[in-house]
Amino acid sequence: MLISLPFNDRVVAGKLLAEKLKAYVNRGNLRVLGLPRGGLPVAYEIARHLNAPLDALLVRKLGVPGQRELAFGAIAAGGVRVLDDDVIGAAGLSAEEIERIISEESRELETSNQRYREGRPALNLRGCAAMVVDDGAATGSTMKAAIEALRLQGACRVVAAAPVASAPAAEMLREQADDFVCLAEPEPFYAVGFWYRDFSQVSDEEVRRLLAGRAEEPAA
Asked: Which site in 62, 93, 132, 139 is 20 to 30 Å from 192, CA atoms measured?
């Protein structure tokens, strides 16, 4: 499949990625988990094309102060934390700064959980194949935390999928996940948003709409 960069937007990227994931279509035990917020439009298209339930997987990126797009790690539900020592060293972050940021993001993690689900319970992942989806992977820290969280929740197989990833992130995710599917690994990478014409911020309202829409959509 010929991929032309940049992608027009996340919806187009999701449809293209779904084509590459056709081996997973109509698998009864598959669950698709999008990483809010940017991963949800991509994950929605994948869940729709694969005929699978969709949910949000709450993971918070830990951004370097003053460079929030640069992740030095990530946290997920269940006390999962992943830290990138190389980024921490390069940014000169102290242990106190790291703990302060983790504390702030932990509070936001809980707030987001209540805001997105609107009373709906999280999908039961025990014994299921779980596919975690984001709009891209620059360092891979966020998806690595997500993979660990999915294993803790009892997923029997974890698939990671993203339209675009840096070569180092892709290499790490191939080691961490049972399967990693990606459309492009451009070098130099720059940033995830560089590979989209429209990289507008996804709103909380859009996340809720996508989750509710997939929950109400009948199986094909």
From this structure: 93
- 30 forms beta bridges with 129
Q: Class of the 10-58+124-216 domain? A: alpha beta
Report the distance separating Cα 17 and Cα 46, nearest Å.
7
pLDDT in tens, 77-100: 778 888 889 999 999 999 999 999
pLDDT digits (tens, 9 = 90+) for 159-186: 999 999 999 999 999 999 999 999 999 9
Indicate whether 220 pLDDT > 70: no
Query: In angstroms, how far is CA 200 from the centroid of its own chain?
Result: 17
Q: Domain extents for the chain? A: 10-58+124-216
Helices 39-50 and 10-20, axial angle in degrees (round to 10): 40
CB atoms within 10 A of CB 10: 25
Taking the chain, what is the end-to-end CA distance rounded to the nearest angstrom? Answer: 25
Neighbour count for residue 116 (Cβ, 10 Å) = 20
**Helix 167-176 and helix 141-152, axial crossing angle in degrees, nearest 10:** 10
Beta strands in the chain (DSSP E): 30-34, 54-56, 59-64, 67-76, 80-83, 129-133, 157-164, 179-184
